[in-house]
Amino acid sequence: MLDAMTALTRGTRLVYQKGLRRYIFLPILVNLIVYASMLSVVVNRFSGWLDSAMAAVPGWLDWLSWLIWPLFFISLVVVIFFTFTLITHLIAAPFYGFLAAKVERQATGREPLDDRGLAKTAVDAIGRELVKLGYILPRMAALFVISWIPGINVVAPILWVLFSAWIMAITYLDYPMDNNKVTFRDMRARLSQRWWPSLTYGGLIMLVTWIPLANLFLIPGAVAGAVLMWDHHYRGARDISPHR
């Protein structure tokens, strides 16, 4: 059975082979531009954000500053991470969808079920990313609130890690599923049914995205790896969503 590390390794080797390399340069360029822009903003304002947040803590909670500071730091870092991820994927989604289709043809010998033209595929890909945003943002906001509730917030870092892995699974495994006409609801149901490969692949991609600069070149491999995961773990799961 294909595991997450094998899928990512094979996918990364695959996208840099002759025939697929030309499909990854634009996504890498998009990631590089967004990465450089966000890094500049974070470097210039991060300490100010932390100082402002700590100044807003009520005086009667000063004795908890040793706990509040690291919790806020972790939450802010995760929010920045998600912002970077969401922006890059919103912009690069049409390229990733196209790359996933090419990988599926070359790696599996199967044609994606998608029969849309290139222009419609690009437009629909952006629409699909907005659907993901509608799913992710309310849950991310709820977790951010939980991170500030005394007592409950001690488990917030664990919840953030699990949530991040789940969102990475949704983000990447959705590309081959969208190409094969799997609805967003059904896609989430398939991932839930096979939660272990979903969370392990999402968790691995989460770790990959934290590697400075190297992540720009590994993300296309993550898209290709998602195609391999789709073919091995999710393609055969049919009609599993209760709300079709």
Automatic annotation (TrEMBL):
GO terms for biological process: cysteine biosynthetic process; sulfate assimilation. The keyword Transport applies. GO terms for molecular function: high-affinity sulfate:proton symporter activity. It is found in: Cell inner membrane; Membrane. GO terms for cellular component: plasma membrane. The keyword NADP does not apply. Its main location: membrane. The chain crosses the membrane at residues 23-43, 63-96, 155-175, 217-234. It holds the Pfam family EI24. It is a multi-pass membrane protein. Keywords: Amino-acid biosynthesis, Cell inner membrane, Cell membrane, Cysteine biosynthesis, Membrane, Sulfate transport, Transmembrane, Transmembrane helix, Transport. Belongs to the CysZ family. High affinity, high specificity proton-dependent sulfate transporter, which mediates sulfate uptake. Provides the sulfur source for the cysteine synthesis pathway. This is Sulfate transporter CysZ. It comes from Vreelandella alkaliphila. The gene is cysZ.
